[in-house]
Amino acid sequence: MKLLSAFRSSYLNRRGTTFRSLDPSSFDGGFIPKPSPSSIFWLAIHCLCCLISLILGFRFSHLVLFFLFSTSVTNLYTTTAGVSQLLKLKPLEKANVTAKSSRVVVGRHGIRIRPWPHPNPIEVMRAHQLLERVQKEQKSLYGVRSPRAVIAVTPTYVRTFQALHLTGVMHSLMLVPYDVVWIVVEAGGKTNETASFVGKSRLKTVHVGFDQKMPNTWEDRRRVESKMRIQGLRIVREEKLDGIVVFADDSNMHSMELFDEIQNVRWFGALSVGILAHSGNADELSSVLKMNQEGKPIQGPSCDSSGKLVGWHVFNTQPYATKTAVYVDDKAAVMPSKMEWSGFVLNSRLLWKEPVDDRPTWVKDVDNLLDGNEEIEDGPLSMVKDPSMVETLGSCGRNVLLWWLRVEARADSKFPPGWIIKSPLEITVPSKRTPWPDSSSKLPVVTKEAKYNQPATEKRSGKAKRIKEQEQ
Amino acid sequence: MSNRLSLSAILLFLFFSASSAQHNVRTERISGSAGDVLEDNPVGKLKVYVYELPSKYNKKLLQKDPRCLTHMFAAEIFMHRFLLSSPVRTLNPDEADWFYAPIYPTCDLTPTGLPLPFKSPRMMRSAIQLISSNWPYWNKTEGADHFFVVPHDFGACFHYQEEKAIERGILPLLQRATLVQTFGQRNHVCLDQGSITIPPFAPPQKMHAHLIPPDVPRSIFVYFRGLFYDVNNDPEGGYYARGARAAVWENFKNNPLFDISTDHPTTYYEDMQRSIFCLCPLGWAPWSPRLVEAVVFGCIPVIIADDIVLPFADAIPWEEIGVFVAEKDVPELDTILTSIPTEVILRKQRLLANPSMKQAMLFPQPAQPGDAFHQILNGLARKLPHDASVYLKAGEKVLNWTAGPVGDLKPW
Predict the structure, then answer these.
(1) Percent of residues, chain B, with pLDDT higher than 90
(2) Residue B252's closest chain A neighbor by CA?
(3) pTM score of the predicted model
(4) What residues of chain B lie within 8 A of the CB of A110, using their CB?
(5) N or C: which end of chain B has fewer CB within 10 A?
């Protein structure tokens, strides 16, 4: 009885007999069930379904009943504007039809939920493609108007740290959203090591060898690197590559904004480079820093308040005067040259043989330089006749877009070629259950075990001896 | 001589077409059904006479509650202020084409800021009685050349509940007048045939203060912030928004492409600028300020409201700008949105980027050319000249002054 009244009242509630329900007179009066066999049977089914739903956890009772007893159900509910066949249905109420017979019905509507309200992976993929396309369009509208290719010139040579450095440069260049041509000039001739990196990058690359070997002192290295970069520029001239030339040294770290910013250069631009002069010796570094409080570790252009280029800010090497590294594997800090190449970018058309119409007059004729008749001593600024005309990038050098770093291993350090080891690594730290049951290299393990055993036995014998002495 | 004239005419034409072509590379001109009407200048096309009503109909209401200036029904107040200083205003009522009575029927606010429409019919009636007795112009046409701004939920039906509003219908005295309202739904009692739909008021300075650079990539696919269930007034659901908002939530709450929630983030405007689609579903009434916000921020509006009539529908081709989804199709919203061709989406974004489109949705202070005030005047100008049947013969009466619920007949 209680169940039946609860059942009845729950139906009444769902019909919404609050002030919001309209036109209750339109419902059949006979919907309130008297305890008849059919309704008792239906009640029993309802209880069974409730139990099952409790166990299974969703309200399928309504749907089952709707499908099974659709005829009797229509007697109980009045349906109007189309009953939806989906789950979680609330009965539609008849509403006041507007005078102008609008298609839209006022009143309570069912909340339509599709059977599997989860994302379709194909649609998600399509949405991501749409997002990408919209972002590309945004970039083309509001970003760089006509993006030029980036020509990166990297001098390198084979050594332990080459994998670390080149991987960094390779990844940076692979992320650049413009066309990239990577010119790798390798000291000591082309090797497979470098070629593997260059090949992995999936970019347009030019890999050439340079006849000299990389010398061992930083000073000489700078000279050889300059020559290697000039070689790279020669390649740009020969191939008539069109784009913006960036000097991407292999140990530098470039930000993505750098490549967006250099698109603004017209002929010859300068930007700020963060100088990270690092030495292996922490104590030295802290003492240096204490002395050098004001200077900023940046090399770049400096402007006056109106934004005009007035000079250059170079890294203050004074504090490091006595403690700089000379040889590559010195522990002291490595100093940058006065003007690092990586802080300058130029339009590749400056290098072409044929005269380009609006080539600026404040840049020297590079043919002399590239043909090897001149030597570049103090950085790329010697390529310009009038340094004050150089364009500044990154809001006049206020944004540091890349970082200069020189870190190398000891001169005699060896590394496995291609960083692939041929034979399994030898065990230096034995695991708990030594010796390995099927290990082929028994010898080192045994000796170590012997070593461990010996002191133990010695100890024990020592103790025994002492005890014996005490006992005695 | 004629050769030279024609040659210069051709040159002029070429020059103008070249300059306009250059200007419109990134945005597309909106060529609506009536041509480029968004940029029409109404000055010279119509004259509006503003009645001098006692301040109890307007200024006193505003003094009592200055919140009326910032809520979404503030269009009525700003329209009055615009007309007072506009060049279309005339002080000579005999040469006026349109008559405007400055009444603020939506300025009776509860403590929480919601307008109560219960006294509005009486206020309107009393104002019209005043106009008809003090000036002869109402009786000439029984209000057919008068216009009123009624921005409330269901316009001149003056009720916030749809059934009650339908029951009341448009106020009988306003049946011949032109109504400028935000509510618009086809085949609905509360939308008269000649009404002009306007966007709800959204504060332009606030929106412009939250603009972000246009090269910030749009990374949200669908964005919505607002209620899905109105637990205070409709606890069981199915009533609020005809169940459409609840359907959006239930179907897409697990979908990572849909950034929907009931939060009130401080970065609401910025997030809209980072989205491709912004949902504009109906609430208790089919219109909402979300449409204005979506247009201003360049987010394609997804309009989920059956039979809705959008602002300035005769001047703005909404079909080409927004996406219309029937309420019954809400469960397939993700399929619908992802199956729109890329070119169509890019075109819609270009149309939205058109500054005249954004300007037409706003009520800036002071008024600027092409804004919503001017679009209203353009709409009024398009209805000119008045049909001869509008003018009644002397003594002829069409309106029934005693129609409507008894409560409305009480003086205000």
Answers:
(1) 54
(2) A117
(3) 0.63
(4) 238, 243
(5) N
